[in-house]
Amino acid sequence: MSITFVSESRTFYLDGKNITYAFFIDPHDIPEHLYFGARIPHDDLMHIRAYGGGTFDSTLPGEDTHVGYGLLAPEIVQYGIGDYREPCVQIQNAGGDRICDLRFTGFDILPQKPAIPGMPSMDGGETLVLHLADALNGFAADLYYTVYDDADVIARRIVYRNEASVPVALRRAYSFTLSLPGQDYEILTLYGAWAKERHMERIPMHHGVVSIDSKRCSSSASLNPFMGVLSTGATETTGEVFGFSLVYSSSYTLKAEGYHTGETTVTGGIHDFDFTWQLGAGESFATPEIVIAYSSEGIGGMSRAYHDAYRNHLINKRYVNTNRPLLINNWEGTYFNFSYEKLAAIVDAVEGTGIDTFVLDDGWFGKRDNDRSGLGDWIVNENKLDGGLRRLIDYVHSKGMKFGLWFEPEMISEDSDLYRAHPDYAIGVPGRPRCYCRHQYMLDLTRAEVRDYIVNAVNTILHENPIEYVKWDYNRNVTDNFSLGLPAERQMEFAHRYALGLYDICERIVEANPQIFFEGCSGGGARFDPAMLHYFPQIWTSDDSDAEERTMIQYGTSIVYPLSSMACHVSICPNHQTGRTTPFATRADIAHLGATGYELDTTTFTDEDRAAAAKQTEEYRACQNLILQGDLYRIDNPMESNFFSEAVVSKDKNTAILLCYRRMGSVNNDVKRVRMAGLDPAKRYYVRELDKELSGAVLMQIGLVPRFARGDFMTVKYHMEVR
Ligand code: DGJ
């Protein structure tokens, strides 16, 4: 049993792999938080209640005694009853008042976590459902808590219910409240932009609210839906670290609040900016899930907790551990400028390289000769692709390779047959000029008929052609938020309904094509979030394919997301984004720390390149299982030093790889010691590159000294195994 209820003290203890979460139901039926952290025995914890502070400034409603003094932070902060921290929920009752006073009414313990209808979430795990209700207005909430015996995370979410006979407006419907003791924390976020996704930023916690958000109807490259709360000074390997990762793809917010009680309270979920949800009598509203990780072993421990949780319980089991296509994508090789002959030549040129999949990117459909037209017309452009898709697919198959195809299902070009027939399918306010972005509009996924069109158009192509791989792109964010399908009073439901529409089409396309491997993409890696990962086992990490810049992007992405989820390609030099030239071997070594592939015009390959590529793909295949299933240990952070080193160690600690990268060479080369991590100190490892056996203890205590070749952007790789 992972969940225990001690009836005498009315305390719940939720035990995960190495963690415990505890709270109790106080005499006023308020669930008061007690603890979240490393695994502890089920001692009575009431002594911490006397520490003072108190989160309520007023009395509890109707009780003229200051019981608030000594009250610990509740499991859900509510508005209008004397708790002035960031509320988790705000309602507006039919009469106009916004008071909400949810108290405990009962609980259920479920052996398996129920799915959230219409929204992706983690599976499995014993689940506590805590029932709360307001005795006066019929508003109720079910708080879900799930713990796992194979990952140090707790998954939480809330279902808000209107049990009254009149509607209630949900003005804020966050997924959780969690109070952490003290305020000696730093906040870690993953900020970025196009071609600069998920860079790390740390700021000190302070009194007041630190918040991150997206108002784009997409999780966005600006700020990934993740917040780390780190004990001050926590490093990659030391210190207590809490992580908050939201399984959501639309506008969101996450907040950490330093309050005068001396605590830090974290909350968030669906953004309440531009949000109001009309909850009719008898209706309920499910929030997205927040996955909260704990590590006493620094940021690295937190990342491994997320990698295990997402690989074991979020990413589609059909794909999570399957060998990844080792692909050649034509985008950087041709952009829109291709013909059947050109593509066939790219395919011919990979012969003998070990590349096993050809992916045809943007430009194969409608009148799509540039990015100004064609989106929405998912019909092959035979003028460009003589003989149609089928001829190319057959050719690729005749070479023993698989075929992949690019789509951008959520978009519509003004210059498209779809727009000419259904201008109303595009998001926008009638009579008001709309914003373009990359010359395109977005389809209104809140409307069922629009979703049906997309699903039908995409599935027709996928059913009529033997396609093994799909890249699902998304190149702009929502503007002109308005749906012709919603009445005026429901327009502020738009952002969340867009997410629900997106999940609906993902589900109906992915599940209708179980033979196809899906990759997510978003003008690079803008929509790289756990919800998308549920449908797409890998996501294009960034349009910046420069090996040097990729070290930072991949390092930051791995803070939450497993290596297996990061699509990383070897591209041509000078690099198209930065103009930089890096060695071919370096580009491959960096791209191998993910789901790898190539993205260039292979007809430019020399025999030497082809031989090098063959060696690279062979090496990648040999360590693919490590990349897909192993534990990641980040050793040198390229955002803080001249080096980038990462190790991946198998779960049984018998095999490992270590990649060391030096950005700038210098005449008087600094001798770099790289101490391995994650090995078993008692085991002996054969280090292939040294042709020598060393103990795990020596490899971790003394380390290795990579002999970088002269020059910039050099790598050294080590393979280790217990023989
Ligand atoms: C953006 C993606 O990130 C690229 O890889 C490519 O697919 C283009 N879109 C195509 O328009």
Uncertain segments: none
The Rg value, from CA coordinates, equals 27 Å
Beta-strand percentage?
A: 25-35%
Determine the structural class based on helices, strands and strand pairing: alpha+beta
Whole-number average pLDDT?
Answer: 96
List the bound ligands.
Answer: (2R,3S,4R,5S)-2-(hydroxymethyl)piperidine-3,4,5-triol
Broad shape: globular
Fraction of residues in H or I helices: 10-25%
Number of strands: 36
* Number of H/I helices: 13
Largest β sheet strand count, sense and barrel closure: 10 strands, antiparallel
The termini sit apart by: 39 Å
Notes on the protein architecture:
This protein is of the alpha+beta class and 723 residues long. It contains 13 helices and 36 strands. Strands 6, 7, 8, 9, 11, 12, 14, 15, 19 and 20 form a 10-stranded antiparallel β-sheet that branches. The chain starts with a strand and ends with a strand. The structure holds (2R,3S,4R,5S)-2-(hydroxymethyl)piperidine-3,4,5-triol.
